[in-house]
Design a protein that fits this description.
Layout: H1 3-56, H2 58-88, H3 94-116, H4 124-154
Amino acid sequence: MPAGHRLSRRVEALVLPILEGADALVYALVGVVFLLAAFGMLVYSVLSFPANLAEQGFPLAVIILINDLLLVMIITEVLRTVLSYLSEKGSSLRPFLFIAAISATRRILAIGAQMSLSQERVDAGQFQQAMLDLTVNAGIILAIGVALFLLTRRGASDPEPDQPH
């Protein structure tokens, strides 16, 4: 084995564990920040509900609460992705599909709330844009559902391939 190749192997053996440890530390810190963000948003959602109820009325206050709670779910799914990376040293497609489905659901709820609680009459262009947006988001949710079904059908006998970072 040439001397240059041996030196390269030694440097790799020395540097790689340090970089992997630093990578794990950064991911752990990001995970803690996500956890704090999820708790903060959850507390904010619950505490702001009475004020929203008084100012906006029951239907809009509930929609705002659901929207906020779905955001908490998105944050926790991202946290789950970080935890999965730390424990398995790889990432998975499944959490990202859940995040996308929750995000599309949030958008559908926002459009529905905007359309149903709109004080002024919606013109044809706005209505058409809202229906297109709803259709696209519903299609996204359907596609994600199919993808999750196919991933689940693949089963435990054929584990999900993880891509190390």
